[in-house]
Amino acid sequence: MNVRVRFFAATRDIVGQRELDLELSGTPTVSILLEELMRRYPELTRIVSSVRVAVNREYAEATQALAENDEVALIPPVSGGLDLYEITEAPLSMDALARAVGQHTSGAIASFLGIVREYARGRRVVYLEYDAYPEMAVAKMREIGEEIRGRWQVDRIAVVHRVGRLGIGEASVAIAIASPHRHEALDACAYAIERLKAVVPIWKKEVWADGAEWIGSTVDEYWSNDQFPTTNGGASTRPLAIGNWDFCG
Q: What is the Cα gyration radius of the chain?
């Protein structure tokens, strides 16, 4: 199957041309196309988390199937900036998100990176599998962003969650929030992960050597809603420990 891929701004600089014809086998998706492009142009890995993909001039999710002669465009963040909310099968890059949210007005960027840990609920985890309702998940992420903007002065927000099979040490969720001041950035970042775990339809399956189980995204053996009081919006007021959160997705 042949598709035409177009590149702009930073993606054009990395690839070295404005467009190319790409041959893909089987039944490719947007995610498979991105993986092939990153294999050919490894530098794309650095910015792929902040890039949106359009198919035939419409924004597309990672799971969207591609057809013969589709036009696929890799679209970096536009000048002036837009918040980024995404469900993706591609590896996550915190450096890319931090660069995507930073503005000249930003005095701080607070970030959170959730990684797959080896032990959970007293059992050794072999790998995790994440599933999501992508359209609703992105819509709920946007709602969280609107809540954040209603509470704190922030410049830009990026929330990206990965789906599919993830091994130990791989990143499952990345959040970066830029703000003129550190306290707003830190508080907003903490709020974002708590709300994401509470309302965004993402599930994980823990796979052990002797079995597996699907676990809802709101479940975490260290945190529970009755341990910490909640705000009117439902977010936990758990004390913050940026950089030291124990999180499995």
A: 19
pLDDT digits (tens, 9 = 90+) for 104-153: 889 999 999 999 999 988 899 999 999 999 989 999 999 999 999 999 99
Residues 91/170, Cβ–Cβ less than 8 Å:
yes
**Rounded CA gap, 120 and 104, in Å?**
41
Task: Report the C-alpha gap between 110 and 26 in whole angstroms.
Answer: 41
What the chain holds in terms of domains, given with CATH numbers, is: 2-75 (3.10.20.30), 84-216 (3.90.1170.40)
Query: Which residue is associated with the tokens 């936990």?
Result: 236
* Token reading at 77: 């963040």
In the chain, the N- to C-terminal Cα span, in Å, equals 35
CA distances from 21 to 11, 14, 41, 61, 105 (A): 15, 16, 15, 21, 40
User: Which strands sit side by side in the sheet containing 108-115, from one edge to the other?
Assistant: 84-88, 156-162, 171-179, 108-115
**Model pTM?**
0.60
CB proximity list for 72: less than 8 A, separation 6 or greater: 3, 4, 5, 6, 22, 30, 33, 53, 54, 55, 60, 66
